[in-house]
């Protein structure tokens, strides 16, 4: 597993896998490790574990490597992140210390609040991409790896929109040579991975592989793609609660969401340009789930506000508050308050693991390009042009499990169920 950015999410994923491998903890939150999938009719009683249905790589076979702008090894970085308690980290310390970040591709222009010493120098962005590919080849040879997956777990970059440089592979490669500012660091890594046919996922909300040029390249090199922005914390709860309200046609007049967060991610998001990227990602979910165009009486002009406040004392332990102004029968107002005291990276780590294992499965199953069945894990699911993204967690889960059934040649489940009464 190639992880770009060895910060809170990456180190919690790596240390977690090492601890689980040694039997010190359980992979709670991971579908690939704990989930089951029902096969056949309800009367058949067949609900094997997902790992017994499709051939996923075992945790014992995973090897981790990655890049960061800081020199800290994974143990030191995990201590700085402060997510996993020191006693558990000590138990996996030797293995964590062996993972040292390779020099990164970084330009402060795209992440204003950060600066670090472990940065590559290159003639232009194409040269930097070549250096990333060389890192990957070296890692593969050193550990005799059969397959690779890359997940961007780096900081949220500034808000960017699609430009000429992103329109085709030809434009993109020219832009790499020209050092075009439309290519942020994250795209250099994505290009390197996809060029090598490696599956790529984006755990952050920035514009990366979701541009025509890289989708075109992925079709050519048969790389599966997934993203973007892991669905954890407040948005996870939002996509659980909103489908329920809509199912019962309960109106929503306003949804005010605020968070306090004290980790480095919070510090980066304190910059308005990085926050804008996150805000766009967080705000779109309600529109798609509630469909105001179909239900104007219930959801038109919904006032949706999202705030993130950097508050260092909390570290990685995010606190989210949601106030939802509801409308019921005859227009009577009601309110729902949700206070979620969560741990950001504890929610994110099992997703990074699942996405990596499922992308590797997709690659072996010859499924390349955008993997919409992995929308389940993302706040802003990447999707085909002209298609709206599916945000409802329950529809996403059904899609994921039906994809596993399809891969296994099992009957898809429609939930019609007439046969039980015939
Ligand atoms: N934790 C969650 O629940 C969650 C949910 C959704 C998305 N995310 C996103 O995941 C990303 C990682 O989150 P985190 O909490 O681990 O943040 P973090 O700040 O702890 O880690 C990010 C790491 O990336 C490094 N980095 C930044 N730019 C880089 C580059 N160009 N090359 C190499 N390394 C680079 C930073 O030095 C840092 O160590 C963020 O973008 C965050 O928004 C996190």
Nutshell version of this structure?
By secondary structure, the protein is α/β, with parallel strands linked by helices.
- Domain module tally: 2
CATH fold assignment of the largest domain:
Rossmann fold
Number of strands: 10
Biggest pleated sheet: 6 strands, parallel
| Strand numbers in spatial order across the main sheet | 2-1-3-4-5-10
β-sheet strand percentage: 5-15%
CATH class of the largest domain: Alpha Beta
The outline comes out as globular
Number of helices: 16
Supply Rg.
22 Å
CATH architecture of the largest domain: 3-Layer(aba) Sandwich
Mean pLDDT: 95
Low-confidence stretches: none
The helix fraction, in percent, is: 40-55%
Q: Give the distinct bound molecules.
A: nicotinamide-adenine-dinucleotide
> Structural class of the secondary structure composition?
alpha/beta
